[in-house]
Write a structure and sequence with these properties.
alpha/beta, Rossmann fold, Arc Repressor Mutant, subunit A, 9-stranded mixed β-sheet, 3-stranded antiparallel β-sheet, 12 strands, 46% helix
């Protein structure tokens, strides 16, 4: 047992929790209430007893309780611990030094425990983490944005958490890995099961460079409900959730809404209003999520005071740098033709001497030119100045 998993958790309790990961499905509120009332050891004793377990007022029917009992009696926690140890992994309990206490916000749906692969400290990584989730069948735009966010978060020293699925999840993980950053994959199966199968290499790289996390024991396979319930862990583990592309019915929106309920930051990357894959994100934004377009804006939302995104503004043109008086003189000149200095002064509402002084200043800057006794706009010179400065 490592130092990270030895704080105040007895071996008996650890084995009971290991066994319960085979008994209690992720997010099972019945199991959560029983754990709160009886503790992991007491709950396993009741489920493995010969008589009917003392689980009064549980809200679960006899048939359901019998299912718990069958699974409890079949559990082999020592074998599961041996299996994860062979992978170089470990099992975390609430109370361990490495346990991320923000998961306690889930109440009775808090994980019984967590199975991990990877050498990093989950508690420390989770303190500065952001979830990036989105559509599996994402567009090229969605994959590009997810990879950019993953890479950007890595470069800013943030941990990116996702689900290792096709589409947005995979693109975000790859963006982090390419930037040699920190990433966590939360699976809806055992940490030794590669799902989707085509992501076996990706999940292996995450285990080497980051962390692979699961509520389910080794060998457990994913189901539709497990995917949905896995999302609450992603939401609770992180400071905020960014959604990149999602339809109106989407598991990514489940994650975002779980984050909102938990008081976490919720963000969305906008897309074309004509795309069904952006409809869910736009609805999330209408419901109060923060619109973000890059990593700087994400960090501004979830980061510490002072971590502000740069102010967005259009290009600064040479004309923008003129003072009020010079601007009034310049605007008094016609688009075509020549005006005498006295007429320009009349149009600008100033004196002829003041106008003459400003006209010579504008000539030195390339905005106007003198033609005989009059003045005209120097369009060629102005365009050349803008081209040299790139409009900035």
């Amino acid at each position: 047992m490592s130092a990270r998993t030895a704080a105040g958790v007895s071996e008996e309790e650890r084995l009971a929790r290991v066994a319960l990961t085979r008994v209690v499905e992720p997010g099972d509120e019945h199991g959560g209430r029983w754990l709160r009332d009886h503790g992991p050891v007491g709950l396993m004793e009741r489920l493995c007893s010969r008589g009917r377990p003392d689980l009064a007022h549980s809200g679960a029917g006899d048939q359901r309780i019998e299912g718990y009992r069958v699974r409890a009696q079949a559990a082999r926690p020592e074998q599961d611990l041996e299996a994860v140890t062979a992978l170089g992994g470990r099992f975390l309990c609430p109370g361990d030094l490495e346990w991320p206490t923000q998961l306690d916000d889930l109440g009775d749906t808090r994980p019984v425990g967590l199975w991990l692969r990877g050498g990093a400290d989950l508690r420390k990584w989770a303190l500065r983490s952001v979830a990036v989730v989105g559509a599996r069948a994402c567009t090229a735009y969605g994959a590009h944005m997810a990879a950019r966010l993953g890479s950007g978060l890595a470069e800013r020293g943030w941990v990116m958490v996702s689900g290792a699925a096709h589409g947005v999840d995979g693109a975000a993980h790859r963006g982090v890995l390419a930037s040699e950053g920190a990433t966590v994959a939360v699976l809806a199966c055992g940490v030794d099961v590669a799902y989707p199968r085509s992501h076996a290499g990706l999940i292996g790289r995450i285990a080497e460079q980051g962390l692979v996390v699961a509520e389910l024991p080794p060998g457990a396979h994913p189901t539709r409900s497990r995917f949905v319930l896995r999302n609450r862990v992603i939401a609770a583990l992180t400071r905020g959730t960014v959604v990149v592309e999602a339809e109106l019915r989407s598991g990514s929106l489940v994650t975002a809404r779980a984050a909102q309920r938990l008081g976490r930051c919720t963000m969305g990357v906008p897309g074309p209003v004509t795309s069904g894959l952006s409809a869910g994100v736009h609805e999330l934004l209408r419901a109060g999520a923060v619109l973000v377009t890059d990593t700087d804006e994400v960090v501004e939302v979830v980061g510490d005071i002072g971590e502000l995104a740069p102010v967005r503004r259009g290009p600064v043109l040479p004309r923008d740098l003129l003072g009020l008086e010079e601007t009034r003189i310049l605007e008094a000149l016609p688009a075509q033709g020549v005006l005498k200095g006295r007429d320009i002064a009349l149009r600008a509402g100033t004196t002829p001497d003041e106008a003459l002084g400003r006209l010579y200043e504008l000539q030195s800057l390339g905005f106007v030119e003198r033609l005989g006794s009059g003045w005209q706009l120097a369009w060629g010179a102005l365009q050349a100045a803008n081209s040299r400065r790139g409009g900035a």
